[in-house]
Each structure stands twice: as structure tokens, then as C-alpha cells.
Amino acid sequence: MTSELQGFVRRLPKAELHLHLEGTISPETLVELSRRHNAEPLNLPQAQALYEYRDFHGFLMAFKTVTERLRTADDYELITYRMLETLAAQGVVHAEAYVAVGIVFFWDRSEFEPIFAAMEQARERAEKNFGITLYWIFDAVRHFGVEAAARVFRKAAEMKRDHPSIAGIGIGGDERKGPAELFRDAYKEARDAGLRLTVHAGEAVGPESIWAALNIGAERLGHALTAIHDQELVHLLAERQIPLEICVTSNVKTGCCPRLEEHPLRQYFDDGLMVTLNSDDPTMFGSDLVGEYMLGHTEFGFTEEHLRELASNSIEASFLPPEQKVRWLRHIEQCV
Q: Which structural domain, as residue segments, surrounds residue 78?
């Protein structure tokens, strides 16, 4: 039955809405990148060791360490294409990937435009070869400060004029060092420029972080793990049908959720919240989107019909235009 269900999940058209481009780099690809740039390249065990961490702060440092090894536009072209190839093999028909523009800017590297041009080439090639579509979300690092984030958002607005694949913006990083309310004006400016708004919130901080994200206009919430501790907030999220980008394996591996059994995924679903399943940084957490759906079945009791509903949620919560949503929702209804 497990293999049959896994086949069903792979055939099920679905969207991946909380995925960090840099978090899809496998140790094998990291070795390949190291061979391009390092006088003494990493071997595979050394690369694998970079993905080891004990807590959320350790994860952030691991992410930073891996990202530092991206040097050129060709590097970004490589990881973008491989990400989409992997997603397409899992039945993902549309993805909305965070790219850490805030880190690129903070390190004051070369201009972002050549890097993005290479990413776009990979996106277009993957769409032609696999039929998968991709939108970009420019991600700022909240603990780098408001001005650094505003620079990322303005770059997104500027580049969106020529690149419709740029859908929105977000803030990630350490919630404790960058409360969402600090970014209110920057988010208003981004919204006025036609960008969609996401916020990582309630991952390592309490429900007050989620309230703050809603107050600055978040249309979608990354993680929202701690909403469960505030029933008024849960009711509001259900009433407004604000999409939640749930990342179960990520929450457990970073220690933000102490045990799998304590994760609120099933409670959110039963309470009528707009839940979507996502892999976050799959190579760093040893999972993928099919794995998250299978986890939903084995650990949270989701039936085949529930999984179909979660796939529908992912399409409805995406930033795709209505006509494309309708097309994929019909495909999901027909999936057996």
C-alpha cells in the first residue's frame, strides 16, 4: 500500500510554495561547485559534514556556509535547473522559490542581474523540458536590518518590470533579531509596487510574531508553527483562509518542534486552516515534497482524499493567475 500511495503522491499535481533555492543544493552538487572554485576542493564527506547542526541557529549557520560557495552566475544556473528537475520528478507542476537576495547584497558581491539572468535561463529550460513553472520570491534577511531588506524589495520591484517570474518578497532569518513590525513601511512600498507579500513567522518565536506578520500585510505565512498556542489567532487564520506554508520535517530537524508528535499540522487541518505542505530546505533536512506528503499519511493519518485536498490547497495558495489555478485544480480532481 505504501508504494501505491507513493505513486499516487508522485502523480498528484501539486505546488511547492516554501522552498529555498540554496537549500536544494545537494552535497554532491556542493562538491562540484567546490571543484570549480577551490584550490583544495571539498570531498563528499567534508561536504556532508557542512549540513550537520544541532539547533535552529546551527541550521542558519549551515545554510550560510553552503550559500557562501555560490560564486558565479553559472553556479546559480546549475542549482536552479537541478532544483526544477528534482521537483518535476516528484509531480510538482509549479514552484515558488525563495532566493536569498539579501545575502548576495549583504556580502556586496557582483551585481545581481547577471546571476538572475542565469537563473532565468535555467527556469525557461526546465519549463520547456519538464513542463514545470517557477515564480521567484526575493528573500531578505530580517536580522540584517530594515534598510538592507528595503534594498532587496526595491530590486525586486525594479526587476519585475522585465521579469514577470518575480512574484513577491519575504523576510527570513532570525525572528528574534528582526521583528516583522520593523518592516511595515518596506512592505507597504513593496505591495504598492505590485509585489506579493510573504513572511516567515512563528517558526522559532511565539504567536506574537505571526500577529506582527499579519499586521504588516502578509498574504502567506511561512511555518506558523506557534499559532497553535493562541486560539484567537487560529480562529482568525481559519476565518481569513490565510495560507500556511507548513514544513514538518524542517521544524523537527531545526528543533523548533521538539517531537514529530507535537507538530500542529493535523490540528490546523482539522480546524479548517489553509494548510500547504512544503520541504523548505530539502537537502539539509533529508526530505522532499513527496516525503512530506507521505509523512502526512503515516504520521498524521491523512487519507488519499486528504492528500488531494492538500495538493489543491497548494495550487489555490499559489500566486498563479486564476485560469492556471483552475486548470491544475481540475487535474487534481481527476487524479486517481
A: 16-298
pTM given for the model: 0.94
Which residue, 265, 245, 199, is CA-closest to 15?
245
Query: Under a CB-based contact definition with an 8 Å cutoff, are residues 284 and 62 in contact?
Result: yes
Q: What's the CATH number where 256 sits?
A: 3.20.20.140
Cα separation of 245 and 277, whole Å?
A: 6
Catalytic residue among 22, 175, 203, 245: 203
Lowest mean pLDDT among 1-15, 50-64, 245-259: 50-64
Q: Is residue 306 part of a domain?
A: no
The three grid cell numbers given for residue 114, joined into one nine-digit string: 547577471
Grid cell at residue 285:
533536512
Judge whether 189 counts as a catalytic residue: no
Single-letter amino acid code for the residue at 45? P
Question: Distance of CA 201 to CAs 53, 124, 156, 265, 305, Å?
Answer: 21, 31, 21, 15, 29
Answer yes or no: is 9 within a domain.
no
pLDDT tens by residue, 148-189:
999 999 999 999 999 999 999 999 988 999 999 999 999 999
